[in-house]
């Protein structure tokens, strides 16, 4: 039976005389029941829900942390779905708090929590996006740098809201208790007034209503005071008070579950932070380390003395950082902590991202550093977070992989060059480097002529290396060439240091030796190959020998004319032994032109070679390569225009380079020309004045100006590149030619005297003995002799024969 029915029955029994007193008691009881219901079904559940907000917040935080620390993307994607659901649940819970806010303070806290929740969710979304994009380190840094501070902020707001809700709950319970006490007193007063008539009613009411309410009041007060949520109010009846007690007990049970879950989740978060394989610390004022840090930090830095230490001593002592960098790092804490977050952005580029730290036992660790600011509501930096990661093994593996990749690249470069050409290049390079080494050893002090020799030889080695695509070697040689170039500069602070120059040559020789070792050991290409032993073996066509033998065997010895003709034919055959065509000798240079054209942004040129019926001896093939490597590359860079310029001038997009060879008396003449813009005489004159080779008022003829390009260090290039600009190419060519008792000069091919640009040819003169005349057709008497002999006797086998 409900309280209402019991009171109604008692009122009827007391006759209508005490209806007023009974009505008053009923009214008081109804109001008490409503207030109890309001507290147990309104205020108390709202307080319960506010307590559950912290639990839901922890669920979102744990789910986000599971995503950024997930070992693979699939797990992260699955956890992201769970994160979306939990964020929605947290959002709904906060909306419910807004709906049941009792006062302006609670509504303000809910609005503040809503704003913080938006920031919190935004930071989580940034971390998740980075993780799903494969940027795990960025995701973790964003999580610990942004999500955790926002979580802390939101947790404080929610905790404040929970306290406010609990305060409202306590106030409501206190008010309810006061009202219940008033009701009890009123009923007690009515009982006294009714005297004997109401004595039984009072006793009944006290037993049925007042007693249970007081017991409930007392137990509720004790629970609220002690915060012991394991206790329950006994339920011995199922009327309004009983239902209220059941609701109250349910609320206490949920609070207990939420508190236990909150403790467990806090422990989980703490466990994850303490077991994450990263050293995490925060920096406060005076660059001191905050007491909260990850357990792995002790393992990483191999010390337990962390709390309160200066981060400069803890992290940056015994590192490879210079004094200036250490000074900058020491000033960063004061420049950021306590200042606007914008200061972090201004100083972030000064924050070291990687250090090499020497440990107590001498081991060196490579540590990766990641910095993040921790800010308050006003965007003021309260702490700096530093995450450290040991990447020593990772860097070691990367270095090993790079070395293996470099080895494979060198093998690819070598395989792209024939065995004969590679062997010739290595031999020539070693000779030139040895010549440089001998020159340096012989001159402890600076000598401009020796410096010019060093530069020419090194530039030639680099040019030949680039010609054959041996880029790693060319880059090593380029460093030495840069040093020589700096020594030539009168404004340079560098001085002639014999030991340093020798050390550079040792590095270059080591690189050449490495190429040679890979070629011989790894690739098994020892020696110059079959065609390389021209000093000992001559590779010729078998048919030439067979024809010569046939002529000798069948010559009519009584006929002087036949003897002379056969002698001349055999002598011609023997003269061609050990020779090669000019195109064959320059094949490496010509093959490199497409790559050079790409570097210069030009079309590969058409190269026409007119050998005039002559071939050159194999022994001088290296000389021709050294000379025309410089000349042809120089024509590509300085002479031929870009495709756009040539097209605008009505020329074909691809330029043309022509090389002609003739024998004139005792000299072998080679002429190189191109269809480019011509020799830049005006720029030559201005550059000669700028380099103080020429006085401003001194006049030069076109021939005298053209001769300037052979001076050491002279160049018309506007900028120094890997191809030209150092003024060494033509100087080296002249040196090579002079060594062989030859000459080089410029011959103009137009009549535009005094013009800014003039068409020209470069003439190279070498001893005629370097070449042999090629005459493939036998003379008339020999041809008649061959026609008169049986076909079987004249037939030979085409192929190569070693003699």
List the helices and strands and how they pair.
Blueprint: H1 3-13, H2 19-68, H3 73-99, H4 104-132, H5 136-193, H6 195-226, H7 240-275, E1 279-283, H8 296-301, H9 311-314, H10 323-336, H11 342-347, E2 354-358, E3 364-375, E4 381-390, H12 392-415, H13 419-441, H14 448-467, H15 471-488, H16 498-522, E5 539-541, H17 542-554, H18 560-575, E6 579-580, H19 582-585, H20 587-591, H21 593-600, E7 606-610, E8 614-617, H22 621-639, H23 643-648, E9 656-664, E10 667-674, E11 679-680, H24 681-690, H25 702-707, H26 729-739, E12 743-748, E13 757-758, E14 760-767, E15 771-773, H27 780-788, H28 791-794, E16 800-802
Parallel strand pairs: 7-9
Antiparallel strand pairs: 1-4, 2-3, 3-4, 5-16, 6-8, 8-15, 9-10, 10-14, 11-13, 12-14
Give the DSSP E fraction (strand runs of 2 or more residues): 5-15%
Number of strands: 16
Q: pLDDT below 50 for ≥5 consecutive residues: which ranges?
A: 532-538, 776-803
Helix content range: 55-70%
Question: Cα-atom Rg, whole angstroms?
Answer: 49 Å
Major β-sheet annotation: 5 strands, mixed
Count of all domains: 5
Name its key features.
803 residues; alpha+beta; Beta-Lactamase; Four Helix Bundle (Hemerythrin (Met), subunit A); 5 domains; five-stranded mixed sheet; four-stranded antiparallel sheet; 28 helices; 62% helix; rod-shaped; disordered C terminus
Molecular structure report:
The chain is an alpha+beta fold and 803 residues long. Helices cover 62% and strands 11% of the residues. The chain has 28 helices and 16 strands. It has a 5-stranded mixed sheet with strand order 7-9-10-14-12. A hairpin with a 5-residue loop joins strand 3 and strand 4 (381-390). The N and C termini lie far apart (132 Å). The model is unreliable at 532-538 and 776-803 (pLDDT under 50).
């Amino acid at each position: 039976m409900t309280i209402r029915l019991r009171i109604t029955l008692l009122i009827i029994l007391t006759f209508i005389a005490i209806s007023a007193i009974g009505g008053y008691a009923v009214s008081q009881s109804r109001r008490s029941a409503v207030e109890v219901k309001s507290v147990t079904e309104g205020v108390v559940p709202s307080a319960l829900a506010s307590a559950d907000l912290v639990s839901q917040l922890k669920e979102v935080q744990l789910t986000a942390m599971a995503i950024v620390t997930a070992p693979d993307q699939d797990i992260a994607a699955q956890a992201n779905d769970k994160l979306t659901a939990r964020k929605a649940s947290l959002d709904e819970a906060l909306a419910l708090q807004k709906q049941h806010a009792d006062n302006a303070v609670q509504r303000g806290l809910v609005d503040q929590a809503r704003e913080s929740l938006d920031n919190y969710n935004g930071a989580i979304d940034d971390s998740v996006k980075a993780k799903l994009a494969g940027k795990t380190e960025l995701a973790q840094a964003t999580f610990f740098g942004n999500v955790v501070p926002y979580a802390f902020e939101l947790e404080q707001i929610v905790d404040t809201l929970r306290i406010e809700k609990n305060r409202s709950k306590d106030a409501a319970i206190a008010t309810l208790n006061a009202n219940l006490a008033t009701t009890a007193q009123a009923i007690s007063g009515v009982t006294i007034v009714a005297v004997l008539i109401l004595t039984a009613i009072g006793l009944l009411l006290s037993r049925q209503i007042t007693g249970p309410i007081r017991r409930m009041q007392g137990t509720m007060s004790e629970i609220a005071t002690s915060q012991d949520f394991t206790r329950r109010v006994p339920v011995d009846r199922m009327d309004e008070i009983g239902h209220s007690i059941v609701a109250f007990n349910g609320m206490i049970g949920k609070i207990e579950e939420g508190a236990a879950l909150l403790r467990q989740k806090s422990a989980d978060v703490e466990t994850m932070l303490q077991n994450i394989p990263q050293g995490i610390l925060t920096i406060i004022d005076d660059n001191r380390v905050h007491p909260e840090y990850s357990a792995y930090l002790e393992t990483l830095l191999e010390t337990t003395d962390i709390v309160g230490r200066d981060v400069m001593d803890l992290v940056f002592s015994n590192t490879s950082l210079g004094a200036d960098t250490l000074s900058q790092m020491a000033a960063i804490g004061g420049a950021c902590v306590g200042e606007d977050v914008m200061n972090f952005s201004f100083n972030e580029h000064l924050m070291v991202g990687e250090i090499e730290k020497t440990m107590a036992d001498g081991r060196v660790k490579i540590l990766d550093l990641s910095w993040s600011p921790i800010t308050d509501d006003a965007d003021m930096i309260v702490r700096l977070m530093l995450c450290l990661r040991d990447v020593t093994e990772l860097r070691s593996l990367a270095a090993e992989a790079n070395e293996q990749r470099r080895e494979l690249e060198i093998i690819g470069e070598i395989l792209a060059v024939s065995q004969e050409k590679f062997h010739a290049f290595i031999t020539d390079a070693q000779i030139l480097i040895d010549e440089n080494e001998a020159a340096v050893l012989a001159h402890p002090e600076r000598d401009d002529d020796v410096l010019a020799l060093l530069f020419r030889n090194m530039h030639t080695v680099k040019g030949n290396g680039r010609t054959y695509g041996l880029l790693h070697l060319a880059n090593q040689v380029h460093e030495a060439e840069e040093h020589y170039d700096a020594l030539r500069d009168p404004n340079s602070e560098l001085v002639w240091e014999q030991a340093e120059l020798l050390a550079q040559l040792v590095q270059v020789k080591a690189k050449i030796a490495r190429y040679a070792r890979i070629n011989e050991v790894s690739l098994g290409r020892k020696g110059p190959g079959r065609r390389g032993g021209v000093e000992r073996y001559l590779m010729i066509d078998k048919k030439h020998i067979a024809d010569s033998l046939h002529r000798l065997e069948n010559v009519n010895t009584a006929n002087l004319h036949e003897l002379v003709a056969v002698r001349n034919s055999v002598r011609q055959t023997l003269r061609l032994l050990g020779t090669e065509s000019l195109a064959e000798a320059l094949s490496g240079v010509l093959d490199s032109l497409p790559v050079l054209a790409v570097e210069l942004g030009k079309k590969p040129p058409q190269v026409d070679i007119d050998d005039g019926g002559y071939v050159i001896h194999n022994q001088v093939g290296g000389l021709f390569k050294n000379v025309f490597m410089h000349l042809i590359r120089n024509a590509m860079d300085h002479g031929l225009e870009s495709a756009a310029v040539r097209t605008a001038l009505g020329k074909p997009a691809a330029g043309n380079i022509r090389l002609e060879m003739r024998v004139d008396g005792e000299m072998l003449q080679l002429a190189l020309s191109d269809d480019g813009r011509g020799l830049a005489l005006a720029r030559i004159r201005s550059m000669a004045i700028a380099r103080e080779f020429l006085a401003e008022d001194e006049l030069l003829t076109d021939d005298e100006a053209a001769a300037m390009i052979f001076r050491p260090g002279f160049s018309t290039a506007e900028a120094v590149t890997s191809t030209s600009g150092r003024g060494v190419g033509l100087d080296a060519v002249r040196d090579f030619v002079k060594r062989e008792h030859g000459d080089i000069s410029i011959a103009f091919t137009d009549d535009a005297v005094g013009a800014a640009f003039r068409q020209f040819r470069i003439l190279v003169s070498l001893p005629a003995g370097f070449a042999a005349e090629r005459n493939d057709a036998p003379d008339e008497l020999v041809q008649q002799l061959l026609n008169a002999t049986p076909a079987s006797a004249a037939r030979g086998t085409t192929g190569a024969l070693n003699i």
